[in-house]
Specification:
302 residues; alpha/beta; 2 domains; 3-stranded antiparallel β-sheet; globular; disordered N terminus; binds S-adenosylmethionine
């Protein structure tokens, strides 16, 4: 039996899980209400993805979880644009959208996002290194995926000091630079740039930056790990925990319209946020429901 991961107070929040096409998000999420939307849609891989329903079985021979084949790149981008436009409407003035893709379509999808949000709303991108092997005979093997970040307004939530966005300073840096101690006993260093002094505390760690190598996909994709559901392309909880804590606050509404196995919803509940998740697939909704139930997370389903 799994242990509930959320405390009593979180169980009272209004969480919702809906079987729906992402383009219908507006029927269960009020316009302007979501502080964060994470989108992990089909990447245009041009294959169907099978699921592993029992430990030891093979995904390739399991039931189809979802299809990722398209008649053309243009058809894929038109499909994506319609859904991104709906997601933008759901965002609050301080809300952001993270769009997770890979080299197959991220270049063109960024142009789509520029069109929907305005190019000046692009807030950067994360290069996520899942840690899988990769090989190619024609160029560098692709060992990363890209997550684009767009904001609805000019002052999005960005919790730069959240521990999830920090890493410890290197021991040499601590020894060499953090030689001062303040009245509260905290080690720090001051850096003077121009005529301004910036103070850095050792216990806050350094900002992670945009290349994330410490959230291995293996955590979500091997039957040996507790968080693995057997759903294909499941993302690791650590990745979603970081995204949730970076761009939402306690009580924020977090939306995932392509929720798959429900990773974002579990991460949101664990961080004391509310969630609205949806997926068009039967297996995705069944997998997410069992995962939420096993974690003791309450929600309404429609
Ligand atoms: C890459 S998977 C998401 C995996 C998820 N992030 C996780 O951690 O398990 C993409 C999902 O998009 C869903 N999907 C495909 N077309 C959709 C649509 N039009 N509306 C909503 N969901 C859709 C698929 O069923 C699939 O579960």
């Amino acid at each position: 039996m799994s242990t509930p991961i959320v405390a009593e107070a979180h169980l009272r929040s209004e969480n919702v899980l809906v079987q729906a096409d992402a383009k219908d998000l507006g029927s269960f999420v009020a316009a302007g209400s979501a502080d964060l939307a994470y989108l992990d849609p089909p990447f245009k891989v041009e294959k169907s993805f099978g699921a592993r329903l029992t430990k030891g079985s093979s995904r390739a021979r399991g039931p189809i979880a979802y299809d990722d084949t398209w008649t053309s790149l243009e058809a894929y981008l038109a499909w994506l644009e319609e859904r991104i436009a709906v997601v933008r409407e759901a965002l609050s003035p301080r809300g952001t959208m993270w769009l997770h893709l890979d080299q197959r379509a991220v270049h063109e999808a960024k142009i789509v996002c520029d069109r929907v949000f305005g190019a000046k709303r692009f807030r950067g991108e994360v290069v996520w290194v899942p840690g899988n092997g990769s090989k190619s005979k024609t160029g560098p093997g692709m060992s990363h995926q890209t997550i684009l970040l767009y904001a609805r307004g000019s002052e999005p939530i960005w919790n730069a000091k959240a521990p999830a966005l920090r890493a410890p300073f290197a021991a040499t840096s601590l020894d060499m630079h953090f030689t001062n101690v303040d009245d509260d006993g905290r080690r720090y260093r001051d850096r003077v740039v121009g005529n301004k002094t910036y103070r850095y505390y050792a216990d806050e760690g350094r900002a992670l930056g945009s290349v994330w190598t410490d959230c291995p996909s293996m955590a979500a994709n091997t039957p040996l790990r507790a968080e693995t559901t057997g759903y294909p392309t499941q993302k690791p909880l650590k990745l979603l925990d970081r995204i949730v804590r970076a761009t939402s606050d306690v009580g924020s509404l977090v939306v995932d319209p392509f929720c798959g196995s429900g990773t974002t919803l579990v991460a949101a509940a664990a961080a004391d946020r509310r969630f609205a998740g949806s997926d068009v697939g039967d297996l995705a909704i069944r997998t997410t429901s069992s995962r939420l139930d096993a974690s003791g997370i309450t929600y309404r389903s429609r």
